[in-house]
Amino acid sequence: MAEILIVEDEISINELIRRNLNLTGHHCTQAFDGLSAIDFLENGKFDLLVLDIMLPGMDGYQVFERALGTPTIFLTAKSELTDKLKGLAMGADDYLTKPFQMLELAARVEAVLRRTKKVETKFTLGDMQCDFDGHQIFLKGTEIECTPKEYELLEVLIRNRNIALSREKLLDMVWGYDFEGGTRTVDVHIQRLRHKLHLENYIKTVYKLGYRLEV
Ligand code: CA
User: Fold this and answer.
1) What separation in angstroms does the CA of 49 have from each of 52, 75, 136?
2) Could you list which residues have their CB under 5 Å from ion ligand 1?
3) How many A from CA of 35 to the centre of ligand 1?
4) Crossing angle (nearest 10°) for helices 184-196 and 148-159
5) For residue 182, which phi and psi values (nearest 5 degrees)?
6) How far is the CA of 167 from the centre of ligand 1 (A)?
7) Quick one: pLDDT band at residue 118, thresholds 50, 70, 90?
8) Torsion angles phi and psi, residue 25, rounded to 5
9) For residue 38, how far is its CA from the centre of ligand 1 (angstroms)?
10) How far is the CA of 24 from the centre of ligand 1 (A)?
11) Residue 185 and residue 175: Cα distance in Å, rounded?
12) pLDDT in tens, 166-181
């Protein structure tokens, strides 16, 4: 779990980001203008800043200068190259142009946190161990061969553990929106993971919805 400060003046976008990052297990603080963002930064410790550039009063660049090395992902409505270059030249870790997909933001957040070593790199459950850096799965210390989709599905379940995920959401997160197969694909992969990794007692079926990894 990481402590994330969201600085975005559009309340609906700020709220949407908070909800999504909460779902992936992070704790979020919300600021709606630059001055209150600086106040939070001076009085708290954050692992990551999700920072809009166009803010009332003080812009995102000015907030960033006061963020004292907190890893930062800039958000902006502009797609102009100059903004991107300015943000990155100032030392931002990543950059997203609005509108963006929440899954895209979540992926960037995990990537930045992983680079800055704020996320777990290994996860153990029963006889199974998952190594996120190596994309490897071990059972009692022996590496188990898994397809890329099996691995991705397991990682999504682990990162969202104890949360019920619908088949449709799993399909979107692992196979992507343009995948043409049905949700039966998810069921087949879940069965394989349960069997291969001895997770029968951990991957629970959620009636009429989907699955939950119970830890
Ligand atoms: Ca804005």
Assistant:
1) 10, 10, 30
2) 9, 52, 54
3) 14
4) 90
5) -95, -175
6) 34
7) low
8) 95, 10
9) 16
10) 24
11) 9
12) 999 899 889 886 778 8
